[in-house]
Every structure is written in C-alpha cells, then in structure tokens.
Amino acid sequence: MAVEVKTPGLQTTVQDEGRIGLYAAGMPPSGAMDKASYRIGNLLVGNPDGLASLEITYLGPELEFKDDTVIAVTGAEMGPKLNGEPISSWRSYAVKAGDVVSFGYIQSGARAYLAAAGGIDVPTYVGSRSTYTLCGLGGFEGRALQAGDVVAVGGGVEGTPDAELPEELRPRLDGDIELRVVVGLASYRLVPESLELFLSTSWLVTPDANRVGYRFRGETLAFVDREPPPGAGNDPSNVVDFGYPIGSIQVPGGVEPIALLADAVTGGGYATIATIISADLDRIGQTKTNEHVRFTSVTLDDALAARGEAREALERARGHLGREEQPRVR
User: Fold this and answer.
1) How far apart are CA 138 and CA 28, in angstroms?
2) 74 near 112, Cβ under 8 Å?
3) Which domain holds residue 226?
C-alpha cells in the first residue's frame, strides 16, 4: 500500500515516538512534536502504539491514496478534505484507492497528524522511523516530503473507520498559552530581577520557530557579571558546556530566549535558565509564529503530577475508543 504526494505542504515529515535513550550519545529524539495528538491518531485508526504518522506543519499537503485504507487527522485544525469534501478531525474515515486528502487554511494549532491503518512504512533508523530534519536522517530519505514522492503504508492492520473522539477528550489547542517550566539548570547566572522579568513577560513567538527550537521576543535579560571560567566563552550567558534537556531555554546575549525542542543539539555552552515540563511540550509544538506565551514556574513535583495527568488523559481516550494498550511497535 502507498500514498503519493501531489503537493507537499510547507513541511510534512514522517514521525513516530522518536529515538529514546540515545541523548547522551548526541542523538536527539526527534518524533512527533505533539505526542498526544499523534498517539490519538493511531488509536482512532486501530493501530498499535508507535506506528509512524505524517506530521503536517502550518500548510497541509495533497495526498492520493493508492489503496483502500483507514485514516484519521488529529492535532491542528487545518480543514481536512476527502475528495474536496470537508471531513472532521479526530475521526477515522475509510478511503478508497484513488481518493485524495487535502487541507484548507490553518485555524488553530500549528501541526496536524495524519495516521493511516498500518502506519507510514519507511525504514527504521536507530530504532525509529522519525525524520531528524537537522541532519537529514530517518523518515523518508531524511527530509520533508516533496511532490511526486510515493510513501509506503504498512499492512496487517484492518483499520477501524467511523471512530471519533469527543471534544472533551481532545487536547486543547486554543486559549491563552501558558508553558510551565522548572527553573534551572543555570538560572543562577541571571540577576534576580531578570528571572522575575522572564516569568512575568508575554513573549512573542518569532518566525524562528521550528522542530529544532522556538525563539521568543520580549524583554532583555541581564546576567550576573563574572570572569568567564576556563572553557567558557565571553558572552555573559556562556557557561562551560553541559547537556540541554528537551524543552530547556537559553538566552544568548540576554535577548530572545530560545526553547530547544525535538531536533535540537543535545549540549553546548549557553546557560539554560529553565526547562519546559514534559507535559507542556505538546502545547509548544502547537504554538504558531506571532502568538504570545507566558512561562510559569512550577516545582519538580508539579511537573511529575502534570506528566501523570497527561498519561491519564491518553488512557481516557484509549478507553473511550475501546483500545487496549499494546506493546509499542518499532
């Protein structure tokens, strides 16, 4: 089975859960930027956990299916259409050979996910089918899809059409954007007033917002004066190199904080003043250029509780759809 790319959209890539456990070796996880929406797509079409989907950013593609299958679109609302007729997100549909799926204008969120019964079937690279766009690894030839590409769809899954997730169980993509952070690892490098300013400012998402990281514009933050230690650079935000957690925020030169995300480098020499909690990484993945975000400080216990709540939300969706948890597919 296969799908042909008629038009690719702005950036459409193959993503799954990502490459877990290789961060210390310098390999970022990649994977879906909004894990909840991606996972629910697999649940809707009846896939085992972990099968790959298409991640669609801002502007959707036009796709022709070469075989009968079942699909679902989740995540950002982009006005999906089947043969030119509107269809609903968060619902699975049977498609026939020759059917075309397309998209309208983005209405909310930033990234939609298209799941197909059997999953998007590209070769695995270091245990994942995810595309690592920064280095051109994994996915479909290590890159975003282009017009004329024919991408395989896996078999062995019958698919479940007409499954739908009610609105109250869907991830929320509208409203104020509050991102919870745990302050550190190097927040001590900021003067106290600037740490307070970081947490009280409404930050604008700049056009530099992609799978590697998001850059924000707002206030200028001041760092404590000091003599650079051996091995650190002369920028006031420089430190001796250390690892960057996913979601960590650095502020080179004290201007335009950068949140490092799924495809970012794993370490470097800038002070990380806070880290977005894992439960809110989906939310930043659904945030667009020119939207505003605020950062709210929480404790590690708060972050762990939020992670548990996110897991419970997924299990409620799984229960509603009558899907039992299955071993993750690689």
Assistant:
1) 12
2) yes
3) 178-303
Handedness of CA 99, 101, 102, 103 (dihedral sign): positive
CB 59 within 8 A of CB 92: no
214 is written with which tokens? Answer: 């998001």
Q: Helix or strand or coil: residue 191?
A: coil
Residues 65 and 208 in one domain: no
Quote the crossing angle between the two packed helices 300-321 and 35-45, to the nearest 10°.
20
Q: Is residue 31 part of a domain?
A: yes
Instruction: Assign 329 a pLDDT band (cuts: 50, 70, 90).
Output: low
Extract the tokens encoding 117.
């019964």
Tally Cβ neighbours within 10 Å of residue 100: 16
What is the DSSP-derived secondary structure letter of residue 328? P
- Residue 328 pLDDT greater than 80, yes or no: no
* Average pLDDT score, the chain: 95
Rounded Cα distance between 241 and 159, Å, is 48
Whether 277 and 202 share a structural domain = yes
Tokens 């593609």 — which residue?
Answer: 61
- Answer yes or no: are the C-beta atoms of 34 and 285 closer than 8 Å: yes
Same domain as 148, residue 184:
no
pLDDT digits (tens, 9 = 90+) for 123-152: 999 999 999 988 999 999 999 999 999 999
